[in-house]
Records
---
Amino acid sequence: MTDRITVEGVYKIFGRSPESALAMLKSGETKEAVLQKTGQVVGLSDVSLSVPVGSIYMIMGLSGSGKSTLARCINRLIEPNAGRILIDGEEITGASEARLREIRRTRISMVFQHFGLLPNRTVLENAEFGLKLRGVPAAARRKKVMEVLEVVGLASWANHLPGTLSGGMRQRVGLARALATDADVLIMDEAFSALDPLIRSEMQDELLRLHRTFHKTILFITHDFQEALKLGSRVAIMADGMVMREGVPQDIVTKPGNDYVAAFTRDVNRAHLFDASSVMVESSPLRLDGRASGGRDAEGEPVFIVDDSMQVVGVVGPRQLPCLADGSAIQSLMSKDYETVCGTEKLSVVASLCHRDRPIAVVDEGGRYLGRVDPLQILSRIGAPAAASSQSRGAEA
Ligand SMILES: Nc1ncnc2c1ncn2[C@@H]1O[C@H](COP(=O)(O)OP(=O)(O)O)[C@@H](O)[C@H]1O
Ligand SMILES: [Mg+2]
C-alpha cells in the first residue's frame, strides 16, 4: 500500500536553543532531563510513521504526549527542528510559504474539538466555509455542501444557526465542512472528545460510515484507547513526544510490546475487537456429491456440506462421519443443526451463538464457506492476559 503521509525522524523542541536539546535527546536523555537541564520542552522526539492512503490512522496518547504538535507539524502550522515530512512523496518540510499555503488549502482539512463554527452563520454557511476559502463559486459550493449535509443527516438544518444544534450535530457540521472540500487528508484533533459518551459512540459509527463513502485518509487524534481501537486501521501510541508502539489494533492488544502500552490494553473488550475469522479453523467442507473440497478435516469434528457454489447446506456430526465411508448418502446423514456467521462478525456476536451448542460455519460476504469456529479459540481470544510483564516477554519471544 502506498503512503499518503510519511513522517521521518521528526523532532520538535519548544525553547530557545533546540540544538542543545536535540543533542541531548540523541544521546539518550529523556524529555524530563532536557526540561530540567535546559528549561526546554520536548514536543516530539524522533517520530517516524507512515499513514497509508485511505486509512484511518489513530494517534493515541495522554495529554501532553505530543499529538497536537505532530498534527501541527504535518499541516505545517509549526516547523519541526529536524526530520522530514512527506505528503504523497512530496517533502513539505522546507517547502516555500506559497506552496505550504497551497497544500493547506487543497490537500488537508482540519476538524477541531470545539467545532470552530461561526455562531452567527447558518449551518450551510459554516459548512461551505472551506470551499469559500478555496474560491469555489457560490452556486457550485451550495450544491456540493447540500450534498454533504444530506449525507451527514443535516440537510433540513441548513438554514439554522449552530446555537440551535446539539453538540453531536455541531460536530457533524464540522465534519461536513471538511468533507465538502476536495482535500484527501482529514486531520481530526480530539474531534469527538468534547461529546457525551453516547453521542460520541454514534459519531464514531458515523465516521466509519462516512469513511466508506468518501475514502479520505484520516489522521485522527485521541486520548481514548478504546476510540483508537474502534476507529483505527492503524494506531500509533505516543508518550513524552515519542511513538511507543505502532500497528494494527489487534496486534497492539495481543502483543503490546512494553508495559506502558500493556497498561492500556488490560481493560479492552476483546470480544468487540476480534472477529469470527480470528477464531476460524480452516477445515475443508464436503460437497453434496460426497467429494471432499480440499483436504480432510480433523477427526472428531463436524464437517460442513456445501453445494456447487460453496453455500453451506448442512452439517454432518463426527459420529455420523464414519457412515459416509460406507457409501451412505450425505443427504440422509446431514442435518440443518448449524449456525453461520460472516468472517467479519465480531466475537461478541459469535460468542452469543455458542450456547446453542451447534457447530458454527464461517462464511464470506457472499455466503461462501470459509471454515468453522472453534469455540475454545473464542475463550482464549477474549480472555485478557494475566499480567502485562508476561505479555511483553511473550512479545519479545
Ligand atoms: N507552543 C508551545 N510552547 C511550549 N510548549 C509547548 C507548546 N505546545 C506544546 N507544548 C508542549 O509540548 C508537549 C506536547 O504538547 P501537545 O502536542 O499539545 O500534546 P497533546 O496534544 O498530546 O496533549 C507538552 O509537553 C506541551 O506542554
Ligand atoms: Mg492536543
---
Amino acid sequence: MDVSGLRREYRGDNFDAVDNDPMALFGAWFGEAVQAAHAKSRDPNAMSLGTVDAQGRPSGRIVLLKGYDRQGFVFYTNYGSRKARDLEANPWASLTFWWDELDRQVRVEGRTERTDRAISEAYFASRPRESQLAAVASSQSRPLADRAALLAAVEAARKKYEGRDVPCPEEWGGYLLRPHAMEFWQGRSNRLHDRLAYRLDETGVWKADRLGP
Ligand SMILES: Cc1cc2nc3c(=O)[nH]c(=O)nc-3n(C[C@H](O)[C@H](O)[C@H](O)COP(=O)(O)O)c2cc1C
C-alpha cells in the first residue's frame, strides 16, 4: 500500500533559545508534554527503548518513564526479559520520546545499570495490587502455553499472597539510563525543523550543537 500521502506541516515556533543544560530543557519539555497529554489522556511518559543484543542486532519496544533527575532516566521491567538480556550483554541503550501534540522528539543515549534494590522495591510497593500480581505471574518475554496459563499463574499468586503484601519479585526491577547524548527536535514549517544535540565531553560538561534538519 502506498502511504506517501500521509504528510502534514509541523508548526512549532518556540525553539530559539539554546540552553546549556539538557536535563533542564528535558524538564521543561516533559512538563509541557504532560500538560498537552492531560487533555487527551495520552501517555507522555511512553518512550521507545532501543537495545542491542550480544550479536549486535538492535530491537525496540515502548516502556514507561517512571522518574528522571540529574543522574538519568528510570524505567521498570523484568530482569529475565529480552530487553534485560540485551542490557546485561550490552548496557548501552537509547530512549526516544515522540510528543505529537507538540511536534517534538527527544532522543537520549547512554549506559544503563540496574537501580538499587531498595528503589525497585519502593516503586513496586506503590503499584496497584493487580499490577503486582501480574508482575509475579509473568515470565516476561518467555513462551507461554496459552493465555489460560498466565491467568492461572495470577490466581496462584493471588492465593499465595492472600492477606499480605505482594513482595517485589527477584527478577523484577528498574534500570537507570545515564545519558551521554541527548537531542531535542522541534518540528517547524516547511521541513525547516530545529535540532539541538547535546554531548557530554570528557570533563563531564554538556556541549551543544545545532544540527541540520
Ligand atoms: C504504552 C506501553 C507501555 C509499556 N510499558 C512497559 C514498561 O514500563 N515496562 C515493561 O517492561 N514493558 C512495558 N511495555 C511492554 C513492552 O513494550 C514490551 O512488550 C515488553 O517489555 C517485552 O519486551 P522485550 O521482550 O523486548 O523485553 C509497554 C508497552 C506499551 C505499549
